[in-house]
Amino acid sequence: MQIATTITQFLADEQSGQPHGNPDLLALLGQVVTACKIISNEVNKGALSGVMGSLESENIQGETQKKLDVITNDIFICTTERGGRLAGMASEEMDDVYQIPDHYSRGQYLLVFDPLDGSSNVDVNISVGTIFSVLRYEGSSAHPSAADFLQPGTQQVAAGYALYGSSTMLVITTGRGVNGFTLDTNIGEFVLTHADMAIPTDTKEFAINASNQRFWEEPVLRYVTECVAGKTGPRGRDFNMRWVASMVAEVHRILIRGGIFMYPKDNKDPTKAGKLRLMYEANPMSFIVEQAGGLSSTGRQRILDVQPEGLHQRVPVILGSKNEVEVVLSYHAGQ
Ligand code: AHG
Ligand code: MN
Ligand code: MN
Fold first, then answer.
1. What CATH number is given to the structural domain containing 252?
2. Cα–Cα distance between 239 and 245 in angstroms, integer?
3. 24/141 same-domain check
4. Is 126 near ligand 1, meaning CB less than 6 Å away?
5. Mean pLDDT of the 249-253 span
6. What is the C-alpha separation between 287 and 9, in angstroms, rounded?
7. Residue nearest to atom 15 of ligand 1 (CA)
8. Which of 2, 231, 289, 290 has its CA 20 to 30 A from that of 171?
9. Closest to 184 measured CA to CA, from 174, 192, 172, 173
10. Which ligand has the minimum distance to the alpha carbon of residue 120?
11. pLDDT tens for residues 17-43?
């Protein structure tokens, strides 16, 4: 009889016998998986739950919070804080580090997350997601500070995302490749459906918010202009374009069929280096993309090598199929 491989079983097998295999990490990831299942359930209820729409509040980036931004943030906290594996958390929806309450035991990991990515899509029933990143806590104080979180992406011990699309999927890496699981709602388990995900090296599909075109830097403008020129332009082939406005959905598409995704540096607001946040969007996604054979860069530097300077720091992001990202990087290098 063929029994499906659940994510719990898969991660246990992956961790066992590994030099860095760690039951504490396994337990923490189990709690994260549970949080994603609860969020999936909430998101799937849609308007029936009465939590569509926005709040009066703004998060630290000055964005109006959706009701579901706050609810999903609470779900993530409540599901993981009591598991005894965390020293602290940070999220898009919290200004500062979240400290584990004293009545719970603490552990050796830091959890950073975007509880609801693409939340502008939630009212219109387009895919949203959750992104998470796990770091080691190296400090000795009972209460980690923001500085303890500011580790480059190369230090991540695990990263993943849940995609609440036409099916719910969870895609994860612990640094040994990327694997995708689909939620079987009949048994309430994520089941391995996409083993060893690999991004095709070449692509004819690009994703960028073209309404920002007038703010782009020269290398990105050149690249997109050449894609749009198609067969008769310098690239000699036609390209297609997609923009979902949910990074999770864009990265997932790229993992499945290739592509390049850009939220580049632009001069729209000189105080912002880009739109996407390093700690809970760019870093976890870059870890996944690299583990699947793709590239991820600011245009000038590998994202995983960026030394973070703030919990909510923004970075330019150019990621996806290796050969296509290399074209954009060569333009940044002036070639
Ligand atoms: P969030 O909903 O967590 O704030 O993230 C939205 C991000 C990302 O998912 C997406 O790629 C991008 O913002 C879309 O930005 P535009 O609305 O500028 O297209
Ligand atoms: Mn996001
Ligand atoms: Mn978000």
1. 3.40.190.80
2. 19
3. yes
4. no
5. 98
6. 22
7. 245
8. 2
9. 192
10. 1
11. 666 568 999 999 999 999 999 999 999
